[in-house]
Structures are given as C-alpha cells and as structure tokens.
Write a structure and sequence with these properties.
- This protein has about 200 residues and is mainly α.
- It folds into two domains: about 1-115, no CATH class; about 125-195, PGBD-like superfamily/PGBD (Muramoyl-pentapeptide Carboxypeptidase, domain 1), CATH 1.10.101.10.
- It is about 55% helix and about 5% strand.
- It is built from nine helices and two strands; from the N terminus they run ααααααββααα.
- A two-stranded antiparallel sheet has the order 1-2.
- Helix 3 (about 40-45) packs across helix 4 (about 50-70) and helix 4 (about 50-70) crosses helix 5.
- The model is unreliable at about 1-20 (pLDDT under 50).
C-alpha cells in the first residue's frame, strides 16, 4: 500500500523531498479521515450524512495543501468543485474498497493534474439573466478554445464571457443532453474538457 501511495505521489510530479517529508522509511502519519478505508467513505458518500461532510472538509484541505506544495501548480482542481472530486473519489473507491481514502484522492488528483492551472488567474463572472457563476479567466479561455475546436465558438478565445460564448455553450449543452444554461457549469465543463473534435 505504501509503495502504491508513493507511486501516485511521484506520478503527480512531486519532488521526492516534498512528497515524502516522512521518516527514514518513507512512512508518515495520516491525519483525519484520509486514513479510513474506501469502504467506509462509500457508506458516508451514499448517506450524505455528517461523516460525509467530514470527508468533504478533508478533501478541501488536502487539495489546498497540494496547491501549496506541488511545483508549478496554482490550482490542481481549477473548475472541479470539492463535490465533484468527492464523486470521482467514490468511483475510485468502488474499484478498490480496501484502499485508503488518501490513496483514492491521490489517484483522482493524478488524473486531473494535466488540466491544472500552473499560474494564478483572475476570476471572472459568467452571467445570464437567470444565474451567474464565478470562474477563472484562464479556464473560461480553455473552454472557449475547446468550443472553437469543436466548431461551436467563432470568436477568439479571450477568457471573457459574452453572447458568443453563451450561445456556444448553449449549443454544446443541447447537443450533449445537458441543461442549456449557457453557463460553464460543472457538468458542462466535465463534458467539454473530455470531448474530442470530429476527425
């Protein structure tokens, strides 16, 4: 188990000194619910009880610490909410219920690592007449680039939310059976970032 955890940490690109600030044998104390088995997390995840809220808090803290100590990383989950991360952790845990929650979170972060923000980015508001969300300007620009590659967006990606971006998002959402809000919400970004341009 420890070797797998270390492998995941190295897979995230952490330097050995930062990743294994532990004892001479590479062992370290895992605080809080990170040391629990995945099967325990899955029970809390299904119930959405007080225990689940403890896991969410732990995930948020772990992600913040990762942002602080992972080289060339401003935000490893720049558009993924802690709730979305919790669903991804549940998927990993279903495949390996005896793994630790820490290991499951590390696997999730390894998966999103290529999409991280390496530099700070200002927040911008994406707003329609019905709702508004805050999003990193750099992520909105990435979304525009993806929408352009898929043939939905005609303008130049600039990280600004305007009518062209809203219409492109609405068209993408309709084509992918998502609620056509015109906003770069979690479900839309998840589908968009995983979409492949037609060959």
């Amino acid at each position: 188990m420890r070797k797998r955890i270390r492998g995941v940490i190295f897979g995230l690109g952490l330097a050995a000194g930062q990743a294994l600030a532990a004892d001479g044998n590479g062992q370290f104390g895992i605080k809080g619910v990170g040391g629990a088995h995945c099967e325990n997390y899955l029970q809390a995840f299904e119930k959405k009880d007080q225990g689940y809220l403890m896991y969410l808090g732990w995930f948020g803290g772990y992600i913040s610490a990762t942002n602080q100590y992972l080289p060339n990383t401003f935000d490893i989950t720049p558009w993924q909410s802690v709730g979305l991360v919790s669903m991804a952790v549940a998927n990993v845990c279903r495949q390996n219920p005896k793994a630790s929650v820490l290991e499951a979170v590390q696997r999730v972060l390894q998966g999103v690592y290529p999409l991280r923000l390496t530099q700070a980015s200002p927040m911008t508001e994406a707003k329609t007449d019905k709702a508004a969300i805050q999003i990193y300007q750099a992520i909105l620009e990435q979304a525009q680039e993806k929408l352009k590659a898929l043939g939905y967006y005609k303008g130049e990606p600039d990280g600004k939310f305007g009518p062209g971006t809203r219409k492109a998002l609405e068209a993408f959402q309709k084509d992918n059976k998502l609620q056509p809000t015109g906003l770069p919400d979690q479900a839309t970004l998840l589908a968009l970032m995983n979409a492949k341009p037609a060959q």
